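Minutes, project check-in
Item: structure for the 274-residue chain
Input as provided by the requester:
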Amino acid sequence: MAFRNVIGFGVAGNFAGHLEQAGEAKDFLAVEVQEAIQPKAIFPFYVPSAKAGFLAVYPLSSDTIVPPNDADNLQIEPEVVLLCDIEYNGTQVTGLKPVKFAAYNDCSIRKPNAKKISEKKNWGADTKGIATELFDLDYLTEGGVLDDYRIASFHQRDGITARYGEDSPVIGYSYFHQRLLDWIVDRMNNQQDVGPTENIAQLLAHAEYPTQALISIGATRYTEYGETHFLQSGDTSIVVVYDGKKYQEDEIADMAKDNNFASEGISALVQNVA
């Protein structure tokens, strides 16, 4: 399933401790927040418009990661992504309606001199990951389907499979449910081009107000292994979003070793690093 007409955004700082592990907390010192647990910003990773420069390159793949030529610090970022219908009143975003979800890899380079978050996110084709199959989402309120799901991630090299991110409940996000959606809508309308952040309303205008958005809602914390191991050619990256009522952590780890996942209640993204 391709999303070439769908605008792509990510949420920065929505899982406690991730930005610190990624060495990026300092990038957001100038960003004002209302409370300590609030995410820092939303950022674009794909804008379907020739006016968007490098962000106009479609970056999503379900099986491949192409590393950048000039960076050796490429990391898996395991996340849930939401496919949302965007509601407008004129040029103002008035609501987001999540309709599907999937496993997502917000694969990122740690670029210390990057001026904007997006410069670490889209460096060409096949630089982001989304699972092939997306699951239907009933609603994003407490008690919904997604509340039962968990996020796991693994790294394979030379026949060895290691846990990359902490196996984490989706409800562990700092902002979730309607609170998260309302905050994203506010950022779409009001976020400005300041420091590492970008004017999202301008990007929506460039894309001629697309009807849907893919929104990755934040990366989990790394294991000690994940924090210190970077992707290389020949590696395999695995992100799994799974129903925690149906499967145990160890069952998912066993499936990851063989890259052989059950289809029911599991959204699995397996990407080979070119």
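Outcome recorded: Residues 177-190 form the longest helix (14 residues).
No further action items on this chain.
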